[in-house]
Amino acid sequence: MKVYLLSAAGVIFLSVIVSLLVPEGKLHKSVTFVMRLICILVLIQPVTGIFKIGGDAPAGSFYDYEYICNIYSDNQSTELEKLLVKEFGADTDCTVSVEHQDGQFKVTGVSVEVNGGNNKIIEEIYAYLDGLKYINITVYAKSS
Predict the structure, then answer these.
(1) Which of the 8 DSSP states describes residue 57?
(2) Are the CB atoms for 126 and 113 separated by under 8 Å?
(3) CA-to-CA distance for 89 and 115, rounded, in angstroms?
Protein backbone atom coordinates (compact mmCIF):
# COMPACT_ATOMS: atom_id res chain seq x y z
CA MET A 1 0.00 0.00 0.00
CA LYS A 2 2.90 2.30 0.80
CA VAL A 3 4.38 1.74 -2.66
CA TYR A 4 1.03 2.49 -4.28
CA LEU A 5 0.63 5.77 -2.38
CA LEU A 6 4.19 6.86 -3.19
CA SER A 7 3.77 6.08 -6.89
CA ALA A 8 0.41 7.89 -7.03
CA ALA A 9 1.87 10.96 -5.28
CA GLY A 10 4.90 10.86 -7.59
CA VAL A 11 2.77 10.74 -10.74
CA ILE A 12 0.56 13.60 -9.54
CA PHE A 13 3.62 15.65 -8.61
CA LEU A 14 5.20 14.94 -12.01
CA SER A 15 1.94 15.94 -13.70
CA VAL A 16 1.89 19.30 -11.90
CA ILE A 17 5.55 20.00 -12.75
CA VAL A 18 5.06 19.14 -16.44
CA SER A 19 1.92 21.32 -16.59
CA LEU A 20 3.89 24.28 -15.22
CA LEU A 21 6.83 23.80 -17.60
CA VAL A 22 4.90 23.33 -20.86
CA PRO A 23 3.97 26.65 -22.54
CA GLU A 24 0.31 27.58 -23.11
CA GLY A 25 -1.28 26.49 -26.41
CA LYS A 26 -2.26 23.29 -28.21
CA LEU A 27 0.74 21.40 -26.87
CA HIS A 28 -0.18 22.35 -23.29
CA LYS A 29 -3.70 20.96 -23.72
CA SER A 30 -2.38 17.68 -25.18
CA VAL A 31 0.28 17.22 -22.51
CA THR A 32 -2.21 18.05 -19.74
CA PHE A 33 -4.68 15.52 -21.16
CA VAL A 34 -2.04 12.77 -21.29
CA MET A 35 -0.80 13.51 -17.78
CA ARG A 36 -4.36 13.46 -16.39
CA LEU A 37 -4.98 10.16 -18.15
CA ILE A 38 -1.83 8.70 -16.58
CA CYS A 39 -2.93 9.96 -13.16
CA ILE A 40 -6.33 8.34 -13.55
CA LEU A 41 -4.79 5.03 -14.60
CA VAL A 42 -2.44 5.04 -11.61
CA LEU A 43 -5.26 5.91 -9.22
CA ILE A 44 -7.60 3.14 -10.46
CA GLN A 45 -4.88 0.49 -10.47
CA PRO A 46 -6.09 -1.13 -7.18
CA VAL A 47 -9.59 -1.43 -8.63
CA THR A 48 -8.28 -3.40 -11.60
CA GLY A 49 -6.85 -5.96 -9.17
CA ILE A 50 -10.32 -6.63 -7.77
CA PHE A 51 -11.66 -7.56 -11.20
CA LYS A 52 -8.46 -9.35 -12.29
CA ILE A 53 -7.95 -6.90 -15.13
CA GLY A 54 -4.39 -7.00 -16.32
CA GLY A 55 -3.24 -9.06 -13.35
CA ASP A 56 -1.23 -12.23 -13.64
CA ALA A 57 -3.15 -15.34 -12.74
CA PRO A 58 -1.37 -18.00 -10.72
CA ALA A 59 0.24 -20.64 -12.90
CA GLY A 60 -1.93 -23.66 -13.45
CA SER A 61 -5.08 -22.09 -12.11
CA PHE A 62 -7.00 -22.74 -15.32
CA TYR A 63 -6.56 -26.52 -15.24
CA ASP A 64 -8.31 -29.10 -13.10
CA TYR A 65 -5.50 -31.63 -12.89
CA GLU A 66 -7.57 -34.08 -10.84
CA TYR A 67 -10.19 -34.23 -13.61
CA ILE A 68 -7.52 -34.60 -16.31
CA CYS A 69 -5.84 -37.39 -14.31
CA ASN A 70 -9.18 -39.22 -14.01
CA ILE A 71 -9.81 -39.00 -17.75
CA TYR A 72 -6.25 -40.07 -18.53
CA SER A 73 -6.53 -42.93 -16.03
CA ASP A 74 -9.81 -44.16 -17.54
CA ASN A 75 -8.35 -44.03 -21.04
CA GLN A 76 -5.17 -45.87 -20.03
CA SER A 77 -7.21 -48.50 -18.16
CA THR A 78 -9.40 -49.17 -21.20
CA GLU A 79 -6.40 -49.41 -23.52
CA LEU A 80 -4.60 -51.78 -21.13
CA GLU A 81 -7.66 -54.04 -21.02
CA LYS A 82 -7.67 -54.16 -24.84
CA LEU A 83 -3.93 -54.92 -24.89
CA LEU A 84 -4.29 -57.79 -22.40
CA VAL A 85 -7.14 -59.29 -24.42
CA LYS A 86 -4.96 -59.10 -27.53
CA GLU A 87 -1.83 -60.53 -25.86
CA PHE A 88 -3.33 -63.12 -23.51
CA GLY A 89 -6.99 -63.46 -24.44
CA ALA A 90 -7.73 -62.66 -20.80
CA ASP A 91 -10.89 -60.95 -19.60
CA THR A 92 -9.62 -58.30 -17.18
CA ASP A 93 -10.66 -55.21 -15.30
CA CYS A 94 -7.74 -52.78 -15.21
CA THR A 95 -7.16 -49.65 -13.19
CA VAL A 96 -4.23 -47.42 -14.08
CA SER A 97 -3.52 -44.72 -11.49
CA VAL A 98 -2.29 -41.41 -12.93
CA GLU A 99 -1.13 -38.35 -10.99
CA HIS A 100 0.15 -34.90 -11.96
CA GLN A 101 3.64 -34.48 -10.51
CA ASP A 102 6.34 -31.94 -11.32
CA GLY A 103 4.43 -30.63 -14.34
CA GLN A 104 3.97 -34.09 -15.87
CA PHE A 105 1.36 -36.82 -15.82
CA LYS A 106 2.84 -40.00 -14.37
CA VAL A 107 1.47 -43.49 -13.97
CA THR A 108 1.79 -44.31 -10.27
CA GLY A 109 0.38 -47.81 -10.28
CA VAL A 110 -1.63 -50.44 -12.09
CA SER A 111 -4.11 -52.98 -10.80
CA VAL A 112 -5.39 -55.87 -12.91
CA GLU A 113 -8.27 -58.11 -11.88
CA VAL A 114 -8.26 -61.28 -13.98
CA ASN A 115 -11.68 -62.80 -14.47
CA GLY A 116 -11.47 -66.60 -14.29
CA GLY A 117 -7.68 -66.55 -14.28
CA ASN A 118 -5.26 -69.08 -12.87
CA ASN A 119 -1.86 -68.53 -11.29
CA LYS A 120 0.00 -69.05 -14.57
CA ILE A 121 -1.87 -66.30 -16.44
CA ILE A 122 -1.56 -63.98 -13.43
CA GLU A 123 2.22 -64.47 -13.37
CA GLU A 124 2.46 -63.95 -17.15
CA ILE A 125 0.46 -60.72 -16.98
CA TYR A 126 2.58 -59.49 -14.06
CA ALA A 127 5.80 -60.23 -15.96
CA TYR A 128 4.39 -58.56 -19.10
CA LEU A 129 3.46 -55.39 -17.21
CA ASP A 130 6.84 -55.37 -15.46
CA GLY A 131 8.47 -55.57 -18.90
CA LEU A 132 6.43 -52.53 -19.96
CA LYS A 133 8.02 -50.65 -17.00
CA TYR A 134 4.81 -50.19 -15.01
CA ILE A 135 5.31 -49.57 -11.31
CA ASN A 136 3.26 -50.70 -8.29
CA ILE A 137 1.75 -53.61 -10.20
CA THR A 138 -1.03 -55.67 -8.63
CA VAL A 139 -2.45 -58.63 -10.54
CA TYR A 140 -5.02 -60.88 -8.89
CA ALA A 141 -7.81 -63.29 -9.71
CA LYS A 142 -11.38 -62.11 -9.34
CA SER A 143 -12.99 -63.63 -6.31
CA SER A 144 -16.40 -65.12 -6.92
Answers:
(1) P
(2) no
(3) 11
